[in-house]
Amino acid sequence: MTTSPPRLAPHDVTFWDLVATSGWHLHPLSGEELRYFESRFPTLRGRKAIDAGCGTGGFTRHLYAAGLDVTGVDWSPFSIALAREATPCPLPYLVHDLSVGDPPGLIARSVDLVVCRQTGSLLRDPDELLYRIRTNWLRPGGQLYLSEVRITDHEARTQRGGMTEQQLARLGDGWAHATRHDLTSQRIACVILRSPA
Questions:
Q1: Strand ranges (DSSP E) for 62-176?
Q2: Fewer Cβ atoms within 10 Å of its own Cβ: the N or the C terminal residue of the chain?
Q3: Do residues 178 and 192 lie in contact, with contact meaning Cβ atoms separated by under 8 Å?
């Protein structure tokens, strides 16, 4: 397994194809994050979910095992190929660039849960994606689970990915409710946003 990331810009799909094939993980799912997620979403069986920016599908498979009707979406064809290879069931995965619009075939306001683990901040316009998730994807009262690396203002000027305290504080704008939990084992903020009913 490679311990350092490929050396390309994170807004280039080639970067993520190389990440998928290298075995490097941006921020692997920790036991602490998984326990927090499960404590906040204990009864989702049968609900519709989208794992936006699913990478190689690890969290998508977790959502499926928890009983959700989940679709994984990522713009890296290599990531999606590896996700399909690692999934023993016919779980739907889509190759789609979230920065250019909603996933094909999405029925408006039909999704109960959207998961974005370290995805939004890597897009050129994360606010636009969050707006579309709130207004186009989620059913009334549906929820968005975000996890993002907490970064300083200096890091925000020198790297791509992660969110500053100011950016994290603004995430709840336009949502009915926002809850934040900072992991102790990693510099990751977990944010749950609920769409207006």
A1: 69-74, 93-95, 111-117, 138-149
A2: N
A3: yes
3-state DSSP call for residue 36?
Answer: helix
b/e code 27-57 from CB counts within 10 Å (16+ = b): beeeeebeebbeeebeebeebbbbbbbbbbb
**What is the 8-class DSSP label of residue 107?**
P
Total Cβ atoms within 10 A of residue 78: 19
Per-residue pLDDT reduced to its tens digit, 118-174: 888 777 788 999 999 999 999 999 999 999 999 999 988 887 788 999 999 999 999
Please state the pTM of the whole predicted model: 0.88
For the chain, first and last CA: distance in Å? Answer: 45
